[in-house]
Amino acid sequence: MFNNKYLSLFLIVLITFMASAIGGVVTSIFKEPWYSQIIRPSFSPPSWVFGPVWTTLYILMSVAIWFNWISYRNKKTLNIYFVHIAFNSLWSVIFFWLSSNFIICV
């Protein structure tokens, strides 16, 4: 599956951004109205910053794990990366869905 160099890059980027899409959908569905009512500190970045920053981070993480894969063929490192991506996606589900449901119940 990951033997072709450019196919492996495509698959890694695809899997990474699929996890990002799951987190983004969950966030957009469950963050309102409670999240906009939170009093944030003055140094909190504006909301438009998060999209470009997360996109850049996901691209850089994908390229880094791809370089690692084509250099070392270490499946353990690749598996750790995908577990990390799964937890990263799961964080949005846990934080926004549970927070939204907890606040509604209170």
Structural write-up:
This protein has 106 residues and is mainly alpha-helical. It has one domain (5-36, 49-105). Helix content is 75%, strand content 0%. The protein has helices at 5-30, 50-72, 75-105. Helix 1 packs antiparallel against helix 2 (50-72). It is elongated. The model has no long low-confidence stretch (mean pLDDT 87).
The end-to-end span amounts to: 48 Å
Global Rg: 17 Å
Indicate the percent of residues in helices. over 70%
* Helix/strand class: mainly alpha
Number of self-contained structural domains: 1
Helices and strands, in N-to-C order?
HHH
Overall number of strands? 0
Q: Count of helices?
A: 3
Largest sheet: none
Concise description?
This protein has 106 residues and is mainly alpha-helical. It has 3 helices and no strands.
What are the main properties of this structure?
106 residues, mainly alpha, 75% helix, elongated
